[in-house]
Design a protein that fits this description.
The protein is built from eight helices and four strands.
């Protein structure tokens, strides 16, 4: 039975501690290995916390996985291409390591050249999402919308009606950012990740989660 090395990646300490996203990646790789009759020879989990996350020197677990894959002469498997990177140059650098990479969701027979194409598309998509988000923020500000915390704490003592009104106002401010992403078919989790990446806080000044995106959309009817 041929062997593989699994590589899983999340982007924050909080996600790493909670296992958020890791279980889904692990299950995808498990199903892939089972379907292809492959043996898992190791698993390496990367948790990134800072900027420049596409630099290989900031991926110690990926370096370990590369070394082990070379010794075993086996491929590294990731659940999705973006668990490696959305950066074309970074993907090209990995291909130069002379270690086969397999993306479970794409299947076992994808040519490395095709991986470059997928990476280029993902990089372009990321740039377009960033541009659209900035445009939505600019339009919302131009209309006088107030992004961020609408001072919910200040109306806490004014009763449930005031709280609901404040939440509705906040939802109205955020919807111009959410709707374009939703129209692209983005999942609730992906939308939350985009808002967090852009530094847009929740009503209480925290980070977005899929349930909060669902609440905003529900308020919009």
């Amino acid at each position: 039975m041929s062997e593989i090395i699994a590589y899983l990646r999340v982007s924050t300490d909080r996600q790493g501690r909670s296992g958020l996203g890791l279980d889904a990646q692990r299950e995808t790789i498990r199903r892939f290995a089972e379907g292809e009759k492959l043996k898992l020879a190791g698993e390496h989990v990367e948790v990134e916390t800072g900027k420049g996350v596409d630099a290989l020197e900031l991926r110690p677990q990926l370096r370990v996985a590369l070394d082990k894959a070379r010794k075993l002469k086996c491929p590294i498997v990731v659940a999705k291409l973006d668990r490696l990177s959305r950066d074309v140059a970074f993907i090209a650098g990995l291909m130069a390591q002379r270690v086969p990479f397999v993306v479970a969701e794409l299947g076992p027979d994808i040519d490395p050249f095709i991986l470059h194409i997928y990476a280029a598309l993902a990089q372009k998509e990321r740039a377009m999402i960033s541009a659209r988000t900035k445009e939505a923020l600019a339009r919302a500000k131009a209309k006088g919308a107030r992004l961020g915390n609408p001072r919910l704490d200040e109306v806490r003592g004014k009763g449930a009606e005031s709280m609901r009104a404040a939440a509705d106002r906040f939802a109205a401010n955020i919807l111009p950012l959410i709707h374009p992403l939703r129209a692209e078919g983005r999942s609730l989790r992906e939308i939350a990740n985009v808002l967090n990446a852009r530094g847009v806080p929740t009503a209480r000044g925290g980070k977005w989660a899929p349930t909060q995106i669902a609440d905003i959309l529900k308020r919009a009817g």
